[in-house]
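stage 2 :: seqdesign
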């Protein structure tokens, strides 16, 4: 149970950490200043949530581990984030589509986590839910704006949804870790989250005058440490300074 709780904590922390790193790449490159700042703030929110989870994971790990060691000194196969958050940002429409799909999942997940039997995860969820609610509202509004906007914005965001859809299934795949955490009252029922996610996503896509992609074969493996080639590049940039100066205090 101890090892499963650690991996469960890392899955949440790695999702937040890697997505925060990806969104940080937009800093200074947003379409307008207001949205540049908004997306950078969302990246900071993700990193803040990652820090809380990394602190908890380090305490579980023991042996002198710290949040920095958890974040910066693991190898690629030791990360357990969903594959979708490590994908390249692409254009603004693709980033919005990815953010919408993940934010909607994250909102329902953390809402359920508020009832966790693990007091630490419950406290983290209580701290994070306000930010996560804003993220979900922001990305949904932008999806509607782009989908129901110009012919060009509609085309781009529709293509992005089509391309990203095969990466969404992994978020709801329950393996032995998920099942054990659910049985212990610690984790959440991903089948229930999928139902809520489907309903909300369908509603927003319809409002955006977009077409919901059909379910098919889904990518998976990230939660088990099997990643795309993109994560290595993310970690190389993120871990460069800490590994060059491992004794430095930030």
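stage 2 :: out
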């Amino acid at each position: 149970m101890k090892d499963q709780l650690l991996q469960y904590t890392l899955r949440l922390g790695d999702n937040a950490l890697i997505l925060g790193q990806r969104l940080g790449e937009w800093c200074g490159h947003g379409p307008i200043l207001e949205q540049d700042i908004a997306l950078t703030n969302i990246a900071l929110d993700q990193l803040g949530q990652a820090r809380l989870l990394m602190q908890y994971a380090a305490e579980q790990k023991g042996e002198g581990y710290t949040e920095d060691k958890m974040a910066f000194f693991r190898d690629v196969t030791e990360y357990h984030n969903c594959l979708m958050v490590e994908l390249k940002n692409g254009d603004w429409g693709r980033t919005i589509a990815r953010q919408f799909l993940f934010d909607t999942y994250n909102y329902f997940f953390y809402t359920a986590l508020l009832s966790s039997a693990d007091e630490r995860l419950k406290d983290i969820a209580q701290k994070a839910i306000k930010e996560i609610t804003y993220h979900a509202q922001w990305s949904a509004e932008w999806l509607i704006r782009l989908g129901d906007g110009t012919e060009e914005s509609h085309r781009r965001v529709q293509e992005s949804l089509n391309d990203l859809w095969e990466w969404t299934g992994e978020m709801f795949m329950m393996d032995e870790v998920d099942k054990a955490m659910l049985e212990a009252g610690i984790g959440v029922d991903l089948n229930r989250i999928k139902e809520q996610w489907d309903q909300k996503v369908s509603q927003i896509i319809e409002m955006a005058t977009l077409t919901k992609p059909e379910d098919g074969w889904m990518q998976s493996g990230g939660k088990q440490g099997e990643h795309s080639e993109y994560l290595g590049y993310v970690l190389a940039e993120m871990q460069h300074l800490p590994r060059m100066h491992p004794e430095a205090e930030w």
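stage 3 :: structure notes
- The mean pLDDT is 95.
- The longest helix spans residues 33-61.
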